[in-house]
Write a structure and sequence with these properties.
By secondary structure, the protein is an alpha+beta fold. Helices cover 56% and strands 15% of the residues. It has a single domain, classed as Winged helix-like DNA-binding domain superfamily/Winged helix DNA-binding domain (Arc Repressor Mutant, subunit A, Orthogonal Bundle).
Length: 151
Amino acid sequence: MVDRMNRSLSFANEPGFTVQEELYLQILRLLEGNPKLIQRELAQALNLSVGKAHYCVRALLDKGWVKMQKFHDSKRKRAYLYLLTPAGMAQKTVLTLRFLERKMAEYDRLRAEIEALQREIGASAGSDFDPVTGPRSGAATVERGTLETSD
């Protein structure tokens, strides 16, 4: 069931990189920066329920990407450090590269779409619009639903 859910939540243009993997990457990054985070703080940082944060941390522990170490100088009863293992650091690097590739491809698609829209607006506005700098002086523009003229 979880596998089917992960596949249904895969990003359409990037097969294999699931929402769950993105969440694991975020958790690995947070724990690397602050291994003393408790699950409640982790949940708040990621806007998750504490139960979902616990489930994800448990999954990372089961995968061997994170290890839990009691910390002895704490005044709290249950205080642990969440430390990335060598396998966890390697997996974080792999996930980061895949995430970066996906974001760069997304950026390229958005940039191409913006340029196409600017050309389209420029073609329909004629000489009153420069696709790079926007409306020329005195040209009518639409600004969030209102028609304005620039001077």
